Amino acid sequence: MSNPMTTAVSPLIDTAGSGSEWLARYSDSLMNVFGAPQRVLVRGEGCTVWDADGKAYLDLLGGIAVNALGHAHPFVTSAIAGQLNTLGHISNFFTSPTQVGLAEKLLQLVQAPAGSKAFFSNSGTEAIEAAFKLARRHSTGGRTRIIAMDRAFHGRTMGALALTAKPAYREPFAPLPGGVEHIPYGDVEALRAAVDATVAAVFIEPIQGEAGVQVPPAGFLEAAREITRDAGALLVFDEVQTGIGRTGRWFASEGVLPDAMTLAKGLGSGFPIGGLITFGPEVSALLAPGQHGTTFGGNPVATAAALATLSVIDADGILANVQATGNFLRDGLRGVDGVTEVRGEGLLIGIDLAQELAPAAVQAALDAGFIINATGPATLRLAPPLILTTDQAATFLAAFPSILQAAAATTIGQS
Ligand SMILES: *Cc1c(COP(=O)(O)O)cnc(C)c1O
Q1: Minimal CA–CA distance to 374: which of 386, 361, 364?
Q2: Could you give the angle at the alpha carbon of 351 between the alpha carbons of 222 and 273, nearest 5°?
Q3: Which residue minimizes the CA distance to atom 10 of ligand 1?
Q4: Which of 213, 265, 373, 375 is the best mutation target for the ligand 1 pocket, counting ligand atoms within 8 Å of the beta carbon and taking the most?
Q5: In the chain, N or C: fewer CB atoms in 10 Å?
């Protein structure tokens, strides 16, 4: 690989500067909603990124389950550049072949019945907002309630926040859009008790990502389908994190058809795009002309990025790689001292630790040249690019025990 320090030059800004200099400028100029950034990154290639000080990292988080094909994938970047060179933005007064082509391709991949439709947004939370508005339109006969799950994460805009469970995210912004109730995730009887003719929609993540990669009991999605169908409520699967090959299947909910599905994160392999798919003609007609919209959503460049992503996943046998590398990682992690549970499917992996070392482990992993993520005090998450090889995964498995030891040393030192 070429020298990162000589290829990160930008004509727009002088990129010279150490990580600590950039971080000082960051804290003087960026709103402090994310906390201090862990590193200043200047370049990526495949599953590797480099920081401003020239240090390389194996990226096992992929921009939070986003960089499906890693960094600077040549086919994706050329599709984006080619489209931008031809036609970049047009508004939804117009359409483009890539927008139509992406809608057709996604409808085929989700095995949607005739009359199903797609809507494109720029992010996951906007896809959820569209689904929330869809649910409000399914209000005939006084369906005012919406059911979501404990520990659910659906985004940060006000509608999505109403569906998100975490009090620390919700409470500073009350009042949120009303009517949403949270019930235990994976609990068929709780769902059966909650859903009746007053419910407009039920929102479910097929695997809860932000909650630490929680996999529901077998049969939960099938039961949710049956319960919502019987009650006439919409079933919405939020596949923003689990969709587009993340679990080794195109969609984590494969085999159970919802009434609506939201997508985003991996769809554009790093280029921002989200989507809502509605299943069948009746659900697809709930949002009438003029009732929803977006300026940027579904633009030619974003839809080209998504089409390129889908075609590489198809052509390169990526789903089989996700299964193989995911199983290899999970098997290797299960034997590690200090690990109490390993969860997930494909390359969405949650790791529970015996002690509350997860934030310290993230720091120790960075020092050792790996990017990982903590979803809680004792839980780590991996969501690497879908192109991660078993050789790359093996370098992490080899380093992980000493990462946990270093984390324990710093944590004990603090207390
Ligand atoms: C990340 C995420 C969202 C929100 O997506 P953004 O692009 O961050 O707005 C919604 N739902 C799920 C399941 C997610 O993981």
Answers
A1: 361
A2: 60
A3: 154
A4: 265
A5: C
CA of 79 to the centre of ligand 1 (A): 25
Question: Measured from the CA of 242, which atom of ligand 1 is nearest?
Answer: 13
DSSP 164: -
pLDDT at site 8: 56
Fold of 4-67+317-414: Aspartate Aminotransferase, domain 1 (3.90.1150)
Per-domain residue ranges of the chain: 4-67+317-414, 77-315
- Tell how far the Cα of 44 is from the centroid of ligand 1, in angstroms: 23
Active-site amino acid positions: 153, 238, 265
Structure tokens at 215: 């996999």
pLDDT at 9: 61
State the pLDDT at residue 413: 55
CATH node for 77-315: 3.40.640.10
Spacing, Cα 401 to ligand 1 middle (Å): 31
Q: Is 83 annotated as a binding residue?
A: no
| Residue 327 alpha carbon to ligand 1 centre in Å | 25
pLDDT value at 207 more than 60:
yes
Residue 239 labeled ligand binder: yes
* Long-range Cβ pairs for the range 89-93 (8 Å, 24+): 89/296, 89/299, 89/300, 89/301, 90/299, 90/300, 91/295, 92/293, 92/294, 92/295, 92/297, 92/298
- Report whether 210 belongs to an annotated binding site: no
Which amino acid is residue 219, in one-letter code? G
Is residue 98's pLDDT more than 70? Answer: yes
Average pLDDT (20-38) is 95
Banded model confidence at residue 168, pLDDT cuts 50, 70, 90: very high
pLDDT digits (tens, 9 = 90+) for 135-163: 999 987 789 999 999 999 999 999 999 99
Is pTM beyond 0.90? Reply is yes
